[in-house]
């Protein structure tokens, strides 16, 4: 059983959203920032699917260049998406190059499956991140190195 030293405050008692004075309140995200964050994530996912896993990094880069310097929220989302999509686009391109250069059928087939996997990973994770961005949350992509900060 947990004992409380002070009862919780109702939302209408003059404190910010029921938080005690001096406590950090959750940051509010404007609709414009949320839209640009969703563009970075959903755009990257769609670009990965449409371009076969090669240009998923373009929409997050556009979001970063347009609004990243004005909004810390958009910057965080676009850099996060850009790091992820750059990584998986590089893997996809490497798979295409190695598949074309593969001298044996099996080696070529294996390296043509790599871009397919990278495309699906970029698409699925981008959709999940876009949904989280719509909810106002920052999604941390799995297997995404921090290329840009």
| Mean pLDDT value | 80
Q: Report the strand count.
A: 0
**Computed structural class:** mainly alpha
Measured between the Cα atoms of the first and last residue, the distance is: 43 Å
- Major sheet, described briefly? none
Percent helix among the residues? Answer: 55-70%
Shape: elongated
Strand content: under 5%
From N to C, what is the helix and strand string? HHHH
Explain how this protein is built.
By secondary structure, the protein is mainly alpha-helical. The protein has one domain. Helices cover 60% and strands 0% of the residues. The protein contains four helices and no strands. The chain has helices at residues 31-50, 58-67, 72-101, 105-134. The chain starts with 30 loop residues before the first helix and ends in a 15-residue tail after the last helix. The model is unreliable at 1-20 (pLDDT under 50).
Give me a quick take on this structure.
With about 150 residues, the chain is mainly alpha-helical. Helices cover about 60% and strands about 0% of the residues.
List the helices and strands and how they pair.
Blueprint lengths: L30 H20 L7 H10 L4 H30 L3 H30 L15
Pfam families: MamF_MmsF
Subcellular location: Membrane
Membrane topology: Multi-pass membrane protein
Task: Spell out the key features of this protein.
0% strand, membrane, MamF_MmsF, 4 helices, DUF4870 domain-containing protein, elongated
